[in-house]
Amino acid sequence: MRANLFSLLALVVFSFNAYAQDEAELLKYGTDKEACEQNLSIYTEFYKQKNYTDAYKPWAYLFDNAPKRTKNIYLHGPRILKGVIKLEADATRKGVLVDSLLMIYDQRNTFYPGKEAYVIGMKGADMYKYMKSSTEGLQASHEVLLTAFNMAGNQSTASVLNYYFMATTKLVQAKVLKVADLIALFSDLSGVIAYKEAKLAQDIYNAEQKEALSSKEQKILRRNKKELKTLGDVKSNLEKTLAPHATCEKLVELYTKNFEVNKEDIAWMKRAAKLLNKKECTDSDIFFAISETLYNIDPSPAAAANMGIRSLKRQDYTKAVEFYTYALDNEQDDLNKAQYAYRLAQTYGAMNKNKSARSYALKAVSFRSGWGAPYLLIGDLYAKTSRQCGELKTEFLKRVGYWAAIDKYEYAKRLDASASTKANERIQKYTEQMPSKTDIFTEGLLDVPTYKIECWYTETVKVRVP
Asked: Is the C-alpha dihedral spanning 67, 73, 78, 79 positive or negative?
């Protein structure tokens, strides 16, 4: 009896495996393997020639009959469909083709999962491109782009951010959404854009430090530079569109009016705090109220950092250190850790605890390479303490700290182009306060390339003769 049960079980397992194998074979080759391979060869050749019209029919055969023959069906498919759509004059036929285009993304996620948010984002972007002429189309694309954004967060592509913003803007213009929805979107998107800009800048910097890049690395570098530029364009459009609606005065009024109703809504509170912070409205009572309430409800690293800002504004430096330290110790993401370490450096600088300030500035760049701001801060520390370091000594010794400061400013702008404007302003300011040529001559350093400073820091700096 027991042997019969084992035999029956083995037969069931064998039958299931055979069915699964048949199913996999059918998905890969369809019912006619020869026809499958012929259509694959034909469409691929036409695709290489950018002849999308002739590539379409054999590609469609594979999409319908052998959906798992190759992932290229889904990588090439959108370009083929877009090529055919571009040449189609009949509106009804064009609508059918657009539906087919959108099906590519759904079917890709079914048979080749793993990048769902990215694929849904591409679908939403194409929905906007081809369906934006109607309110219904805008709403449909907005819904899909919102889904992609919520799934991807900081990993959202510039394309998704761009089309999500444009769809929202048009729906506000159509009075389907309100200006408040656009302001909420501004808060969400600006945070992601800032994060992505930092990440891309770091990746580009790291790539450019290598002596030689493989072809794959060169391709990634080009893509990252293009993505960074696109993000800059999205941010510019976002800020230009929201400028009339997102002044400090209007934001403070809006959030003050709606605070009581929303003070238990964590998502609302986070958006409000983020936007008030971005627009530098952190002196307002409503920012203090939102920060404290949010921290009490959800003491996340970001909420603690907002409390740090609040404490800094009140010159309660001990509390600021406490909050920023909590944020740094509990954060998992290196780019965010870099920001919190930098804020700690600023706080210690305000407390005149210069060694700690310098230490945390260097910690910030250990988390985020290619970032100039911490080196500007170190330069500022050297500049403000230059005369103290040479106190009761020669005029030369009182001024050499400006050499150290200028070295850091020069390094910051070499490292990070976005730091150039601030670096140049400081260099111009402190060049006038460097040791004079007479003082340098008196010290016997006119023909010496470097000088070692011994102060609360030790730096070997370039001798700069006016």
From this structure: negative
